[in-house]
């Protein structure tokens, strides 16, 4: 029966995912962290999905529509700096749960808005409380998973971002058509409440510096390999909050996953002795930490690349549905099919980008976490051009599919590389600086895209000319991104060696 086949397919997919990530304990951690990104991305995707309804209901322009996302990103950029300090000094799981509670309240306020000004203020508050995700997730991922696996694991976690955008575009858009744009906001608030409960009950607080990581199911502590029962000591269950490492949590820093650090050995790669930390970085002020992480050449390159990539993605997310509607003459309901396929391409890209980079590192390509994103950005630009120029949905769809996959594939290696080159006691603050600049780029992007679309567009209300020209122009920064990453790949091995050589004070 069809129902039985669906259940069997879902069960097989669940077993495959659990096996791929290393067992149930790891799966729970990854699923919860992916859920946080999914919630934030679903919110931003929903704004783009309900764009036609918002414009009609509140009588706003493209620039004002872009401002709804811009103010959210701008307030997040301002709030993320103090959050980064907290992420390095307090219990991150509690910080994350509290921020989502406030996020839910801001989302409910947005759903009740009866004017553009009210909605704009709710987006301002929502951005401020959503700033917690970047620094806390980065620090948690670094402590939960060893270096050589992080790009692959980041792929699974960032898939939540892709799924969230898809949920916002598809479910949010359909709810807006069937009920109203307010219903889409209320549904997201309900998911936020549920996620808060899951975080409080299922997500343990890991020890700093990777002391007590959940090892993959079936892997012994002594050799890093071998059969395991998957239960009890071999289950990979984490320590209770506030406790030390428990049985099944790997207390050894190197593992078979630490391919990056093992690959450095025997290569004669010397660290930058001027950047080796000689004191506890946890005692650094925010200003000292910022100056230090911005002296790491690879980190600066990665920050720029991330900001540029998210700049383009933010514009695409805000105006993609509107472009499909006007360029290809698709009604809102008809957008669902093409958007779903493009979303699947993005999901495939985010799951494969990290795996490819980690595989190349294990084969001796130390700069893979730089070259894989560079190739991905260049391929994105190449494949977007024909998709934007054609007016045929069937012709454009394969190009959009590949372009979306490559754009998403760049993020897991970039995120993993940032953890590689920064001391673990600086992960929260380093990520807050990166998120500050990334959010700034995301804040500017919707307004910039909307302004250019209004400036370059024709007078026809159904014309896609302005958006078409805008997307074509904005492909230029993606090409520049590829060049920057290829230029910066030479400093990556040395900066990894520097982070490894830095003193690691005992964490209690």
Q: Secondary-structure element sequence?
A: HHHHHHHHHEEHHHHHHHHHHH
What helical percentage do the residues reach?
Answer: over 70%
What is the average of the pLDDT values?
76
Decide which structural class fits the backbone: mainly alpha
| Cα-to-Cα separation, first versus last residue | 56 Å
The tally of helices reads 20
Q: What coarse outline follows from CA principal-axis ratios?
A: globular
Cα-based radius of gyration, to the nearest Å:
22 Å
Uncertain runs: 220-259, 504-508
Portion of residues in beta strands equals under 5%
Strand segment tally: 2
Strand order of the largest sheet: 1-2
Q: Tell me about the biggest sheet?
A: 2 strands, antiparallel
Structure, briefly:
The chain contains 20 helices and two strands. The protein is mainly alpha-helical and 508 residues long. The protein has a two-stranded antiparallel ribbon with strand order 1-2.
Describe it:
With 508 residues, this protein is mainly alpha-helical. It has a two-stranded antiparallel ribbon with strand order 1-2. The longest helix is centred in the middle third of the chain and has 31 residues. It is globular, with a radius of gyration of 22 Å. It starts with a helix and ends in a 7-residue tail after the last helix.
